[in-house]
Amino acid sequence: MIIVMRPFASDAEIEAVTALIASMRLASHVSRGSERTIVGVVGISEDKETLLAQFAQLEGVESVVPISRSYKLVSREARGDRTIVRLANGAAFGGGELVIAAGPCSVESRDQVNLTADAVARAGAKLLRGGAFKPRTSPYAFQGLGEEGLKYLREAADRTNLAVVTEVLDTRDVELVARYADVLQIGARNMQNFGLLREVGGARMPVLLKRGLSATIEEWLMAAEYVYGAGSHDIVLCERGIRSYDPQTRNLLDLAVVPLLLSLTHLPVIVDPSHGTGVRTLVLPMSLAAIAAGADGLLVEVHPNPAAAFSDGPQSLTLPNFSDLMARLAPIADAVGRSLPAPALAV
Ligand code: PEP
Ligand code: MN
After folding, report:
1. Is ligand 1 within 6 A of the CB of residue 124?
2. 21, 144, 301, 345 — which has fewest CB within 10 A?
3. Angle between helix 319-335 and helix 280-292 axes, rounded to 10 deg
4. DSSP H or E segment with residue 129
5. What confidence tier does 45 reach under pLDDT thresholds 50, 70, 90?
6. Is the pLDDT of residue 34 over 90?
7. Listed residue (31, 42, 9, 13) closest to 234, CA to CA
8. CATH of 85-335 given 2.70.98.90, 3.10.20.30, 3.20.20.70, 3.40.50.620
9. In angstroms, rounded to a whole number, what is the distance separating the alpha carbons of residues 33 and 93?
10. What average pLDDT does range 7-30 have in this prediction?
């Protein structure tokens, strides 16, 4: 159930609502928008009609909306406006400006990260991506540099005014990764790792939640519900392709989820065309298509020398490929009423 407060309801009115919820031994989640506050009530098992009438009578309450969907806190109805995930460097997912995150699949060396950060910041990216803890299919494949990699990312991002998004694989590393990152990434393989979702939610910092390899939209939104319920409300959903039968692409990039999610949830939605296709030449056209479909941004793999990459070389853009992509995005962004931010570094 969602309680929508009148515009500019007072703090005392909001507190009266949460106090009544607590007295019924139910949990509340308060979302303060620019004008309106919305209070989510979770845990109701019976007699919804009586509860609905009780809340509707309180001062400052505009309406009470029962939500029959399995996901509640992240549903479109739960908020009067969209969530905008704002980062310290000015990037804002879900605002009018597109947010592009770019960088290597794996952090390999200080030089590799610095070279990439300079190039992507000059081209207009706002986030530096890179894995320091890598989820590899083979235990014999490169597993990431760990904390050393996190240091390289932070150093390069600070120098270029980029924010850092990087994956956390294990509940035991959440605190460590949170010390270096601006956004914690939950990878596709961990989308339903419920312990990790709760732990990351408890960090109360922005989270990038990738779609699981074969997750339905409902399962994905329920995963977001775990993170939201645990305390991190700034969640960005990232479509990265789902398993299919055709080996010509690594995954099947499901762009229909973009407009669909924008109708189902208030959370921002971005697209990862690199893992979504696995093929370098497909990254540019699918990036353009993602933005045309309404995505709030992109997550793109970029490497100074893809042929020598420790992981995902075949899908990584070169540095010039990435500047070309940014230039080609501008007219598409314009056509759908979006803009690209000014580069973090002067060209
Ligand atoms: C990544 O972005 O580094 C990654 C491992 O992607 P995914 O979890 O989508 O496979
Ligand atoms: Mn990768």
Report:
1. no
2. 345
3. 20
4. strand 127-129
5. confident
6. no
7. 31
8. 3.20.20.70
9. 15
10. 93
Task: Give the distance (Å) from ligand 2 centre to CA of residue 7.
Answer: 44
Residue 119 has pLDDT above 80, yes or no: yes
Q: Is 198 exposed, middle or buried (0-12, 13-18, 19+ CB in 10 A)?
A: middle
Asked if residue 240 has pLDDT above 70, the reply is: yes
Amino acid at 222: M
Query: 240 CB under 6 A from ligand 1?
Result: yes
State the number of CA atoms in the 13 A half-sphere of 175 facing the CB. 1
pLDDT, mean of residues 211-227: 97
Report the alpha-carbon distance of residue 74 to residue 171 in Å, rounded.
Answer: 23
Q: Are 125 and 344 in contact (CB under 8 A)?
A: yes
Rounded mean pLDDT, 280-287: 98
Asked: is 2-66 a CATH 3.40.50.300 domain? The reply is: no
Place of tokens 């100074």: 304
186: CA distance to ligand 2 center in Å? 13
Closest CA to 126 of 337, 270, 299: 299
The DSSP 8-state label assigned to residue 152 in this structure reads H
Residues 105-112: what's their mean pLDDT? Answer: 98
Split at pLDDT 50, 70, 90, the class of 148 is very high
Domain boundaries, the chain: 2-66, 85-335
Does position 347 have pLDDT exceeding 60, yes or no? no
Residue 126 backbone dihedrals phi, psi, to 5 degrees:
-115, -15
Backbone angles phi, psi at 323, to 5 degrees: -65, -35
pLDDT digits (tens, 9 = 90+) for 181-217: 999 999 999 999 999 999 999 999 999 999 999 999 9
Contact 283, 273 (CB under 8 A): yes
Identify which ligand lies nearest to the alpha carbon of 169. Answer: 1
Site to probe by mutation for ligand 1, drawn from 275, 277, 299 as the one with most ligand atoms within 8 Å of Cβ, is: 275
Q: Write out the two tokens for 285.
A: 């056209």
pTM here? 0.91
